[in-house]
Amino acid sequence: MSTAADPVTDARAPGSGNRAAGATPSGPSARRTFWLSALVGVIAAGVTLGVAELVAVFVGAASSPIFAVGAWVIDLVPGWFKTVVIDLFGTADKAVLLLSLALLILVLAAVAGVLEYSWPPWGMVTLIVVAGVAALAVVTRPEGSGILALSTVVGMVAGVVVLRALTTRLHRWRDRTRPVSAAVPGTAALDRRSFVVYASVAAVGAAIVGFGARMANAGSTAVSTVRTALKLPAPATPAPAIPTGAELDIPDLSSYVTPNAEFYRIDTALQVPSVDPSSWRLRIVGMVENETEITWDQLLALPLTEHLATLSCVSNEVGGGLIGNALWLGYPIRELLALAKPKGGADMVLSRSADGWTAGTPLDVLQDADTEALLAVGMNGEPLPIEHGFPVRMVVPGLYGYVSATKWVTELKVTTFADDFGYWSDKGWSEKGPIKTESRIDTPRGGTVKAGTVAVAGVAWSPHTGIDAVEVRIDEGAWQKARLADTASADTWRQWVFEWDASVGSHTVEVRATDATGYTQTSKQAPPAPDGATGWHRVSVNVS
Ligand SMILES: Nc1nc2c(c(=O)[nH]1)N[C@H]1C(S)=C(S)[C@@H](COP(=O)(O)O)O[C@H]1N2
Ligand SMILES: [Mo]
After folding, report:
1. Residue 298, domain member (yes or no)
2. Residue identifier of the C-alpha nearest atom 19 of ligand 1
3. Domain count, the chain
4. pLDDT at 179
5. 296 and 147 in a common domain
6. Domain closes at, from 406, 427, 448
7. Worst-scoring range by mean pLDDT, 286-295, 341-350, 521-530?
8. Residues 372 and 500 in one domain
9. Helix, strand or coil for residue 508?
10. For the Oxidoreductase molybdopterin-binding domain, which residue ranges apply (predicted)?
């Protein structure tokens, strides 16, 4: 910013009638003052959020107001709206939510600034009310508590101080345009400097402190350090070795086991819950003879089982990527349920996460001796990644994640479908969610290929039932058998390949699978809601 000339007064010099010849430069125009007062509001909001983030480093990441408000919005909006947003933005839905929230805050902040300048104390009142709502959101979250309001309250106090101080400075500067201000000692240049310096320091300070603190909060450093240092016990019952024939080794074909870094992630958590294993507990409550509680150390001391299973999201479109196969390490849930002894009449287990999310799983599936439903602690040879549920989650072969795969799980409530419902089942999704038989073409995924033999390959799944056959057809011709890769069990997807003698031109390729019950995938196109998408995956390929 130039100090030699005063851009404010220079710009409005011609025709401004309120300046006597030879008078000192005056303050900003009315119009400019309006925008500066809006800017004051934005800076005050920035200070509020920046300071709140800073305090949250000490009080706990769950006290961050913007994330608590975001989480609140997620829980409050109706199911159909969520479905629309997820359809439009897919897994970017959270970024979109946070961006909309930031925009709303920007507008409210500008309004607060303008109000405080022209109609005090209504700007302050606005800031306090908005911060109050945010504090309420923080406190009422499932992981919330009264003390967590501290971050927002301290941030709010800092914001009010800055709002007042900057508004006062803006008034002083602006008043230079009025003849009466000649009586006040000083010059517009000095008043301007006082405003600009205060505003810049507050804005830059808030940005640096806020950004730094946010990084610290997002890293949830404490729990990731604990996780890195962890060594899980070896399984008492290891998974059988994966047959070498399970992996076809075709470029662009999904690997049989999905690496953790590539495993899809779906949850409602704007901020990943940080759950320390040393304070983690699982309570088994509800319709049971013995209410049971198990700690992390007790869980690890039990004979653990290793099991390979494919997990899919009900929101997965035909051909979509919301599915993965991993080696899970955990303790069979049926054994824990046997300790708790469910009472007659119960038919559902409502599992609850540290962040309040719930899933309703059929009790008989969890008790079934042939279903490796696990309380999992390990994923592909390491502790669960934090975003995949560290320290403990559920994995139930054959069921979509929304009715079974509770991450950061802390409670199992034995109950009935008549009395309880899981998070999504209350929002237009089916209460039962067996994974549908499906298949996907991974390669070629469209584009252009060379004429001659083309390896068309992909995966097919019907977890817990198993896949018996995969067929491919070209240009809606006759169905032809693809070659199925080996599999470790019926609980995982299977790779398949079809050697296609591709001729020059444009072609369509389709796939369909038949599961171990003899059921062949329906051609009927259905959207994911309410209980999973159906239809044949089809790609268009140019052959040259
Ligand atoms: N706590 C919690 N657990 C959850 C969810 C959630 O929103 N919160 N989403 C479920 C859904 S819909 C799916 S598909 C799986 C996804 O697990 P992943 O992210 O490890 O792939 O987690 C399930 N467990
Ligand atoms: Mo899901």
Report:
1. yes
2. 265
3. 3
4. 62
5. no
6. 427
7. 521-530
8. no
9. strand
10. 270-418
The stretch 372-385 carries a mean pLDDT of 98
User: 9 lies in a domain?
Assistant: no
Q: Which two tokens stand for residue 267?
A: 């949850």
Q: Which of 74, 263, 267 to mutate to test the pocket of ligand 1 (most atoms within 8 A of CB)?
A: 267
Within 6 Å (CB) of ligand 1, which residues are found? 263-269, 311, 313, 353, 355, 357, 388, 401-402, 405-408
Q: Given this model, what pLDDT does residue 165 score?
A: 96
Q: What pLDDT is attached to residue 16?
A: 39
406 C-alpha to center of ligand 1: Å? 6
Residue 185 has pLDDT above 60, yes or no: yes
Rounded Cα gap, residues 487 and 470, in angstroms: 14
CA distance 316 to 57: 36
pLDDT at 33: 94
Q: Which of 99, 101, 100 is nearest to 134 (CA)?
A: 101
Residue bearing the CA closest to ligand 1, atom 7: 267
Which region among 88-102, 104-118, 142-156 has the lowest average model confidence (pLDDT)?
Answer: 88-102
Nearest CA to ligand 1 atom 20: 388
CA 462 / ligand 1 centre spacing (Å): 19
**How large is the average pLDDT for residues 191-197?**
92
Say how many Å lie between the CA of residue 424 and the centre of ligand 2: 9
Tell which one of 407, 409, 531 to mutate to probe ligand 1, the residue whose CB is within 8 A of the most ligand atoms. 407
What pLDDT, in 10s, does the model give residues 212-256? 998 888 765 678 889 999 999 999 999 999 999 999 999 999 999
Domain annotation covers residue 6: no
**C-alpha of residue 314 to centroid of ligand 2, in Å:** 5
Longest alpha-carbon distance in the chain? 97
Q: Percent of the chain scored above 70 by pLDDT?
A: 93
Residue 174 sits in the same domain as residue 269 = no
Q: What is the mean pLDDT of the chain?
A: 90
Range of the domain at 87: 23-218
Tokens 């923080």 correspond to 138
Q: Which residues pair with 539 in a beta bridge?
A: 509
Residue 36: closest CA among 130, 128, 169: 169
Residue 534: CB atoms within 10 Å: 17
**What is the share, in percent, of the chain residues with pLDDT greater than 90?**
74
**With contact defined as beta carbons under 8 Å apart, do 206 and 43 qualify?**
yes
For 456, phi and psi rounded to 5 degrees? -85, 125
Instruction: Say whether 229 sits in a helix, a strand or coil.
Output: helix
Q: Identify the pLDDT of residue 184.
A: 64
The ligand 1 atom nearest the CA atom of 268: 7
**Is the domain of 418 the same as that of 362?**
yes
Q: Write out pLDDT tens, residues 14-66.
A: 333 344 434 445 788 889 999 999 999 999 999 999 999 999 999 888 888 98
Q: Is residue 444 reached through a cis peptide bond, with omega within 30 degrees of 0 on the bond before it?
A: yes
Mean pLDDT of 482-487: 98
Residues 315 and 367 occupy one common structural domain: yes
CA 293–ligand 1 middle distance (angstroms): 23
